[in-house]
Each structure stands twice: as C-alpha cells, then as structure tokens.
Amino acid sequence: MRLLLTSDTHVPGRARELPGELLEQIERADAVLHAGDWVDTATLDLLEARARRLVAVYGNNDGPALRERLPEVARVELGGVRFGVVHETGPARGRERRCAERFPDLDVLVFGHSHIPWDTVAEGGLRLLNPGSPTDRRRQPYCTYMTAVAERGRLTGVGLHRLPPRRP
Q: What pLDDT sits at residue 167?
C-alpha cells in the first residue's frame, strides 16, 4: 500500500494552491495521511475528491468548518500497520517519550505543526514521522512531503521529498 504523508498545507495563507508534484503523488497513493493545518475547506474537498483514501485531522489554524469535518486524532490500520495522525505533539525535547506514552497502541504516528521534517523511533518502537510542509518551508531549506509503503505489518521505503521553490 503506497502512502503519501503531508501536513501544514496552509492554502491560501502560505500558497495559492498545492504544488503540482504533490497533487500527482496524491493520485498515485493508495492512502493520503494529512496532519492538519489545512486553513480552508476547499483544500480538504480537493483531497477528498482526488485521494483513494484520506485519513486527516484538523490543526491549530483550522476553524470551525474544518473542525466539524475532521477529528483531532485519527487512527487507521493500513497494510497491517497501526497509524495515528495528530497535528501537535508539543516541544521536540521529550517528544518520543510523550508520544509513546500517549499512543501505546500505534506503530506509526504522523504529526505536523512545526513544518520541520522528523523521522525517529521512540523507545518501545513507535515511529514518529513529520512530513514538513509542501507550501511553507519556514526555517527549512525546502518545502517537503513524505511517501512510504505499508504492507504485511511493516512500514518501508519512507522517503522525504523536496519540492522545487515556488515561483512568485
């Protein structure tokens, strides 16, 4: 099962639209996991229309219309891997311990908020993944998203993808 992981799309605040490469990858994926901060419902509508399966949550910048449609935490099993999706996990210091305590039933936690890509494994085996942002690189050199494969209870092929700079 091919997965696309994204977060912090912030359309139209940080970009007028999602990058073309991200949209192409959405259509290739068996499931899309979005860790919040959509900002507008049009982007949610777009992903719901294009993704074969969408697992998504709201973020701190998402208003009532998005919060009515999305949960704060989502859980799903894909390819035999137990995933959770959440927007915020708190400060980087102590993140692995906090998340392992909060989500002891998961194999992988996808999160957002910082716009900083992250890939670590907590004691006990919980893998934490932050795909960064495809529209707002913040303090990072590139805008990013992730892909992975989930099959037979294993997550493999996790890749961080850099997007080309946007043209003004």
A: 66
The topology (CATH level 3) of 2-163 is: Purple Acid Phosphatase; chain A, domain 2 (3.60.21)
Cβ atoms of residues 58 and 75 within 8 Å:
no
Q: Which helix (H) or strand (E) holds 20?
A: helix 20-28
What is the rounded CA–CA span in Å between residue 144 and residue 48? 21
Rounded to the nearest 10 degrees, how much is the dihedral formed by the CA atoms of 44, 48, 53, 57?
Answer: 20
Residue 150's φ and ψ, nearest 5 degrees, are -120, 120
Convert the pLDDT of each residue in 20-72 to its tens digit.
Answer: 999 999 999 999 999 999 999 999 999 999 999 999 999 999 999 999 999 99
pTM above 0.85, yes or no: yes
Q: Would you kindly state where each structural domain of the chain is located, as residue ranges?
A: 2-163
Q: How far apart are CA 10 and CA 162, in angstroms?
A: 17
Q: CB under 8 Å to 100, separation ≥6 — which residues?
A: 122, 123, 124, 126
